[in-house]
TrEMBL record:
<dbReference type="Pfam" id="PF02879">
    <property type="entry name" value="PGM_PMM_II"/>
</dbReference>
<dbReference type="InterPro" id="IPR036900">
    <property type="entry name" value="A-D-PHexomutase_C_sf"/>
</dbReference>
<feature type="domain" description="Alpha-D-phosphohexomutase alpha/beta/alpha">
    <location>
        <begin position="330"/>
        <end position="443"/>
    </location>
</feature>
<dbReference type="Pfam" id="PF02878">
    <property type="entry name" value="PGM_PMM_I"/>
</dbReference>
<dbReference type="Pfam" id="PF02880">
    <property type="entry name" value="PGM_PMM_III"/>
</dbReference>
<feature type="domain" description="Alpha-D-phosphohexomutase alpha/beta/alpha">
    <location>
        <begin position="218"/>
        <end position="320"/>
    </location>
</feature>
<comment type="similarity">
    <text>Belongs to the phosphohexose mutase family.</text>
</comment>
<feature type="domain" description="Alpha-D-phosphohexomutase C-terminal">
    <location>
        <begin position="455"/>
        <end position="534"/>
    </location>
</feature>
<dbReference type="Pfam" id="PF00408">
    <property type="entry name" value="PGM_PMM_IV"/>
</dbReference>
<dbReference type="GO" id="GO:0008973">
    <property type="term" value="F:phosphopentomutase activity"/>
</dbReference>
<dbReference type="GO" id="GO:0006166">
    <property type="term" value="P:purine ribonucleoside salvage"/>
</dbReference>
<protein>
    <submittedName>
        <fullName>Phospho-sugar mutase</fullName>
    </submittedName>
</protein>
<keyword id="KW-0479">Metal-binding</keyword>
<dbReference type="GO" id="GO:0000287">
    <property type="term" value="F:magnesium ion binding"/>
</dbReference>
<dbReference type="InterPro" id="IPR005846">
    <property type="entry name" value="A-D-PHexomutase_a/b/a-III"/>
</dbReference>
<dbReference type="InterPro" id="IPR016055">
    <property type="entry name" value="A-D-PHexomutase_a/b/a-I/II/III"/>
</dbReference>
<dbReference type="InterPro" id="IPR005843">
    <property type="entry name" value="A-D-PHexomutase_C"/>
</dbReference>
């Protein structure tokens, strides 16, 4: 239906006021073009002014475009002013440290944030070049910063960018020192952003201090020290940063730890904001690691590793018999890392999320180690247990792993890759593989097979309708067995959990995409040592479970 003329006039007037305040000539020209093309451009203009990008616990993330509903210099200036004002209001002292990736606009947004900070009288420290998100999270702790900003959209499409905030110890507390913000900080920062006046009145100071490479070297040295110094190192690794910023830091960390330097997919080795060889820069997406697997196969690599573009996630592929390679699920890598740390004698709290496999819970129970599970997101994982025991490992099934919480209190794809390599090299020295260790865990604890039902929608009302449907007509059986427990996490979270003796389903809207997700898990015991047969049963059961849940959701 065409927009009402009155609506167009109102949006046009708001756009003109925005134009007057926009400090960037490029986005002013972009918005003028949209205005000049009215009325045909009315839907585009309306979308740009449908609201402001909201500052939540993931900070800001959105498409690069002019207007308040996009990532641009005006929005970043306002966000930086609001953040700096909020830090001052909380009595936070110390520098603001700022990192950025290689996406379009990232450096410009980081430099503007530094100018806003210094203009308000706060020291600003810029990382020396585009670097992984875990380096920024590490810098917040190492430099005693009041907070950190990372300009990145992680594994989003090329046209997006984002703005993540970390707090230092003074405002984040012991558990949140160097971690992403959680409520009520997000709401406080959002309110402070909305209170910022005309951008022309935001004072801009000098560009801040650009840090030297000694910070990166310190991160590399600490990362290499995460693994034991005297372990096996004979391992051939194929690697891709997926056109992101991980390659230089990861290869340096591998060399510092004594591993052969991984072979890097040449077409994807250098940062490139266009991500030209992948349709979607996420190692979980179909086709994203095809070049990596080809390199691993051609070079006879033992394992293949991929980081996402900001290198906070880590994907691992292994040889799958004589048929080629397969990507390990996040849950598989998570339990492999946890088991490895346990075998190394690392004691303390092990944590994951409500949508991850229940195998970690079983492992901790059998080995007498504290365990906790949280809502999704590393901002919650690093605060698991509420301080009842020191966190030593956390993971989420979406390829995020924290193997050294005292170093980086967030997911870290570099230290995770090193720890995977340590485990794989040790197993190789014994004539074994990562899949052999997975089979051993299955024989001990049963096959915990996980999968997802993920549905992308064009209209968010479809998600709300499906969640209402599952609450109104909750299944009473799963795979023919009675549902023994149903949990509805409203109002804290829009999550429904169903449990039966052999299955678990967690249903929730995605926090970052227009998707409804159902996380499926089936547990099959291993009889007479036949792991392969139990895996086959589990795979069949998960397919049936997916169909049951799709029907229940009306999808």
């Amino acid at each position: 239906m065409p927009a009402d003329t009155t609506d167009i006039d109102d949006i046009r007037e708001r756009a003109r006021r925005w134009l007057d305040d926009d400090p960037d000539p490029a986005t002013r020209a972009e918005l003028r073009d949209v205005l000049d093309r009215l009325p045909s451009s009315a839907p585009d203009l309306a979308d740009r002014f449908a609201g402001h990008l909201t500052f939540g616990t993931a900070g800001l993330r959105g498409p690069l475009r002019a207007g308040p509903n996009g990532m641009n210099l005006a929005v970043v200036t306002q966000a930086a002013a609001g953040l700096v004002g909020w830090l001052a209001a909380q009595g936070g002292t110390g520098p603001l440290v700022i990192g950025y990736d290689a996406r379009y606009g990232s450096r410009e947004f980081a430099e503007r944030t530094a100018q806003v900070a210094t203009g308000a009288g706060r020291p600003a420290l810029l990382l020396p070049r585009p670097l992984p998100t875990p380096v920024l999270a590490y810098a917040v702790r190492r430099l005693g910063a009041v907070a950190g900003v990372m300009v990145t959209a992680s594994h989003n499409p090329p046209q997006d960018n984002g703005y993540k905030v970390y707090l230092g110890a003074a405002l984040g507390g012991d558990l949140g020192a160097g971690a992403q913000i959680v409520p009520p900080a997000d709401a406080g920062i959002e309110a402070s952003i909305r209170a910022v006046g005309p951008l022309a009145e935001v004072p801009l100071g000098p560009p801040g201090q650009v840090l030297g490479d000694d910070l990166v070297s310190a991160y590399v040295e600490r990362a290499a020290a995460v693994i034991a110094p005297d372990g096996a190192r004979d391992l051939s690794v194929a690697y891709t940063p997926l056109h992101g910023v991980g390659a230089a830091v990861l290869t340096a960390a591998f060399a510092r730890a004594g591993f052969p330097v991984p072979g890097v997919v040449p077409e994807q080795a250098e940062p490139d904001p266009a991500f030209p060889t992948v349709s979607f820069p996420n190692p979980e997406e179909p086709g994203a690691v095809d070049r990596l697997v080809a390199l691993a196969d051609a070079t006879g690599a033992d394992i293949a590793i991929a980081n996402d573009p900001d290198a906070d996630r880590c994907a691992v592929a292994v040889r799958d018999g004589s048929t080629g390679w397969r990507m390990l699920r996040g849950d598989e890598v998570g339990v492999l890392l946890a088991d490895h740390l346990m075998r190394r004698g690392v004691t303390g709290l092990y944590a994951t999320t409500i949508v991850s496999s229940s195998l970690l819970r079983a492992m901790c129970a059998a080995r007498g180690l504290p365990y906790d599970e949280t809502l999704t997101g590393f901002k919650w994982i690093v605060r698991a247990g509420g301080g009842s025991a020191p966190l030593v490992f956390g993971y989420e099934e979406a390829l995020g792993y924290c193997v050294a919480p005292d170093m980086v209190r967030d997911k870290d794809g570099i230290t995770a890759a090193l720890t995977v390599a340590e485990l794989a090299a040790g197993l190789k020295a014994q004539g074994r593989t990562l899949t052999d260790r997975l089979d051993e865990l299955a024989a001990e604890f049963g096959v915990h097979h996980t999968d997802q039902l993920s549905v992308r929608v064009d209209d968010l009302r479809e998600i709300a309708d499906a969640m209402a449907r599952i609450r109104a007509a909750t299944p009473t059986t799963l795979l023919g067995h009675p549902v023994e427990a149903t949990e509805d996490l409203l109002p804290e979270a829009d999550v429904v959990i169903l449990r039966s003796p052999s299955a678990r389903v967690v249903i929730r809207p995605s926090g970052t995409e227009p998707k409804l997700k159902a996380y499926l898990e089936v547990v099959e015991p291993v009889t007479d040592g036949d792991v392969a047969e139990a895996r086959t049963r589990a795979q069949t059961a998960v397919k049936t479970l997916r169909a049951e849940i799709a029907t229940a959701l009306g999808l």
